[in-house]
Amino acid sequence: MFLAGGTNLLDLMKLEIETPTHLVDVQDLKLDAIEETTEGGLRIGALATNTAVAADARIRRDYSVLTRAIVAGASGQLRNKATTAGNLLQRTRCPYFYDTNMPCNKRKPGSGCAALGGYSRQLAVIGSSDQCIATYPGDMAVALRVLDAAVETVKADGTARTIPIAEFHRLPGTQPQRDNSLERGELITAVTLPRPIGGRHFYHKVRDRASYAFALVSVAAVLQKDGSGRVAFGGVAHKPWRVEAAEAALPLGAPAVAAQVFADAQPTEDNKFKISLAERTLASVIAQARS
Amino acid sequence: MEFNAPAGTNLFDKSRIVGKPTPRIDGPLKTTGTAPYAYERHDVAPNQAYGYVVGAAISKGRIVSMDLSEARSAPGVIAIVAAPETQPLGKARSNIAPLFGGDEIAHYHQAIACVVAETFEQARSAAGLIRTVYGREEGAFDLAAAAPAAGLAKGRGGKPDRKLRGDFEAAFAVAPVKLDAQYTTPDETHAMMEPHATIAAWHGDQLTLWTSNQMIDWAKSSMAQILDMKPENVRIDSPFIGGGFGGKLFIRSDAVMAALGAKAAGRPVKVTLQRPLVVNNTTHRHATIQRLRIGAERDGRITAIAHENWSGNLYGSEGEDGTLQTPKLYSGENRLTANYVAALDLPEGNAMRAPGEAVGHLALEAAMDELAELLDMDPVELRIRNEPQSVPGTPDKKFSDRNLVRCLRDGAERFGWSRRATKPGQVRDGRWLVGMGVAAGYRGGPVQKSGARVRLETDGRITVETDMTDIGTGSYTIIAQTAAETMGVPLEQVTVKLGDSRFPASAGSGGQWGAASSTAGTYAACVSLRRAIGEKLGFNGDTATFADSRIHLSNRTIPLTDAGSMAAEDQITFGEFKREYDVGTYAAHFCEVGVDVFTGETRIRRMLAVCDAGRILNPLSARSQVIGGMVMATGAALMEELAVDKRFGFFVNHDLAGYEVPVHADIPHQEVVFLETEDPIASPLKAKGVGELGICGPGAALANALYNATGVRVRDYPITLDKYLDELPDLATI
Amino acid sequence: MAGSAGYGLSRRGVLAASAASAAFTAVPLSAHSATRKREPGAVPVSFEVNGQHVELSLDTRTTLLDALREHLKLTGTKKGCDHGQCGACTVLVNGVRINSCLSLAVQHEGDEVTTIEGLGTPDRLHPMQAAFIKHDGYQCGYCTPGQICSAVAVLKEIEAGIPSHVQADVTSRPEPSNIEFRERMSGNLCRCGAYSNIAEAIAEVAGAKA
């Protein structure tokens, strides 16, 4: 298993949720550059820290939804250590995943899901399965999703590939132990951003305290003057949640978008509030864009 | 010294040091990382090994088998102490379940083993190799389900805890204005920043524990009870404690596992509870259900008030009594309070900062706000209208010194209360709905006997030794101030040594009694020393003036150093006369919040506390105590909740990511005002504590401000946005 | 309660009895029994701590935090949670603040580590330490070293123009303001609730610098 910033992996290893027999420290692979691509976008090295990415002048200017998402996450200390690749690979914060005494199909396939029928306030309202209702906890990837970023990797046999961010994180289905589409031994080398798309960039993260907490719901949005735009939601599913088809409704307002985005939602009694919260948070973002 | 009559004019009325804002004398140590906390005492015992505690994976049942073979042969392992191989230990003060031993599991994460190894990493790794087979039994984990069948708690003298005055039911029935509302508060955890930790070392049958404990004398006797040994063979040392809030009042499993581990390993062992274990292994504040019924005349006078409270605990042991402040705060002829406790199989509930009152105010003071609205009356005025002349629940008792009305009026003036919109949901500031709230606060001002030893050194330095603890409360400094004032030396000339059971027993840190009691004990010892110096040098130590490191007599002045090296020990005890009085501390809390009209996010804009707690010994650290209480009250009102899994019977969010406490971003500048009052009934220094006063009321002021902002009343704490989101203005209307 | 089927709650614990209230599917434990653990062994590592070169031989599992506290006996850096949830372990590595609990010591070969002991001593306080004392920016003292290390770094981060969540416009330079301090300090929990005073201590140092 690869070790970079370690801010999630070491946490999980101490609890024996992750028990790798070998760790390969990849910190010195010099993959921390942020460079312009020939297509007019940016290539962010896998090992660029969250702080470095958020502070990059080009990202602040052209992709500020990404800066905003990163600085809404974790703490200054963690962002100084956490890397771009590691952030994509964050595991869920489901409390049953974190307690090794509890059944969890993600941690121990086939053992059951204690979150079903349990404490699920923070957990997924859409895209979940009867095996797992965990959420992907990160913020950065939600912004990457609206930016149509891509993840560049190299496999153990040396072949490289590019995975669209939409296909990077998975839904739990019958294999909740698999968070993403990486193969065994496959290493993320970079994240690429296409050409800037202009517009006003927003990342609104709602949580129970004002900072240093995982999202109840977050909204990443890039909105254009004509009312069109893109929007993705965090804190609601096993992956950043974006329904491109619903974006056509953005000029009509948040309820029209949310109705489509969450049409197939299957919330629990504890977390059904996330659907109206997502709608209201998007409404807030749209109101700001119009002001 | 017995404090057996109200304090008259004394040296503290002309004090030069006591009562002045004084930076903490332990500040240079704490800010440079050189103050030693329990787990860090590398110097006290050589060759320390590391213990790692294993917690039970079930909430109720028994251990069928435990396979230690793999763990025992793991690298670096020195010894393993396992519950099935250990007779259940004795139970000490306020331990409900045995801290260790035997097959029975009483609650989730109860300690079942401790692995001792050469390194922390080895101990942790080996702990993961222990294989335990459990037989799980059904348990009761749902307070709401258990409450209807709960019996009355045992009150004073073992009598059922139900108090009646007049005829509540009849008076309530005919009251022209009535409120009947139910409030709930969740289980909470202390979440002190330093997890419970202990280093244990044996020398023959002598046990020393370098630990983190608020009550040294209790710890010493408890440890002796638990291990069935003589108290004189136990030494406890806790000079610095990384927060307690009630969670370190009692010996817990860290101390027991370190002691047993050290015995098994034959060398000193250090143990800290890993953070994810703290919540379920140790104690927590119990959840409550509280019903308030208040009947009033149309002019606001309360004629009937009932406060009933339900909580639960392991085996139905002592619960969280939310009614405690209700017999004290407001007048009303016809009264009822009752406190019920259900038997639950969750981990042990016990004291957390202002047990009872902290959550009692969340209910009572929200109810007062609701009553004010029913009466169409200002909530500050409603409280003033019901200011009692004597203690409402026990009218034969007088208040020692009570200035709550001043707190309310002064606070209202300072806060700009008159600008509050009477009708809720009316004030907008951009995207924010803005509201103000008020609450009163009451917390008892008890004292306990407290001892100290004071030494005069040949160079004129004064050293105070007492087993009093400083859990962040500022004990070091107020004790030094007291000794400096009484012995007439500069503060810099005083050394204070705390937390060692070899020192005279003190009141310890709990129940908001520490400051008043330990300074009184220090004063008593200083008075004894002055008398001894007088006897030695031929003057009356009680009438001489000790100042500027000199002794001023009517006809001459003697340098203090002329006395040479001397020591005196004494304790303060408190006489019967206090029983005629209710000694309390009071506050008026004000809060202004903004609520995002779209998302329901809450941001505190301003907070103010106006406090009446007698002489404030050190306004700098006392203010910190109050703002700290306000922060914890903010957590209780807005975010803190141990989530109960009612199937598995445990607190699910058992770490500091899952259990959210307020962070810097949640807390704006906080204002605290202390009225300049003195309480001659309280102590020779006319002082009372403030450490718990600060958490009594601010949460309700915040809840009332939220209501004023939004027009939505949430009676189920914490008031998280999911509970009112759908009642915020419709998106189409924003 | 009855039954001896051995249904797994987890890798470590086995439930001998079935529980009616447990709404989940369980599988036999044996399928997931951990293989016997191997000792990773000690590895040499050297770095600088507070200007002093140190060489250690450490179990690879040792965190930077435990290397400081247990091996170098620099106990000013605190362990509050060991999981990056409290900030008590904050130190500066090559001038940048991190949580030392979530970093392996062996990842720090050649690094320059500054701990609270390296900022100042009781006799020679760092201005931030002095400001914390003056404003009573602490109570129990356990989170304090982490708060102070973080505060020192926060002022540098603002000066360097690192953006924050509370900036209205992330392309602009951040200002040393109360809300910026509070947002940036939010990774350092203080359960005693000294936040209001800490913000004032930082403001004083920031003002002195300006």
TrEMBL record, chain B:
It comes from the Bacteria. SMART domains: Ald_Xan_dh_C. It is an enzyme of class 1 (oxidoreductase). One of its GO terms (molecular function) is carboxylate reductase activity. Its EC number is 1.2.99.6. Keywords: Oxidoreductase. NCBIfam families: peri_hyde_PaoC. This is Aldehyde oxidoreductase molybdenum-binding subunit PaoC. It comes from Novosphingobium rhizovicinum. The gene is paoC.
UniProtKB/TrEMBL annotation, chain C:
InterPro entries: 2Fe-2S-bd (IPR002888), 2Fe-2S-bd_dom_sf (IPR036884), 2Fe-2S_ferredoxin-like_sf (IPR036010), 2Fe-2S_ferredoxin-type (IPR001041), 2Fe2S_fd_BS (IPR006058), Aldehyde_Oxdr_Iron-Sulfur (IPR052914), Beta-grasp_dom_sf (IPR012675), TAT_signal (IPR006311). GO terms for molecular function: carboxylate reductase activity. PANTHER family: ALDEHYDE OXIDOREDUCTASE IRON-SULFUR-BINDING SUBUNIT PAOA, OXIDOREDUCTASE, IRON-SULPHUR BINDING SUBUNIT-RELATED-RELATED. Its EC number is 1.2.99.6. The keyword NADP does not apply. CDD domains: fer2. This is Aldehyde dehydrogenase iron-sulfur subunit PaoA. Keywords: Iron, Metal-binding, Oxidoreductase. It comes from the Bacteria. It is an enzyme of class 1 (oxidoreductase).
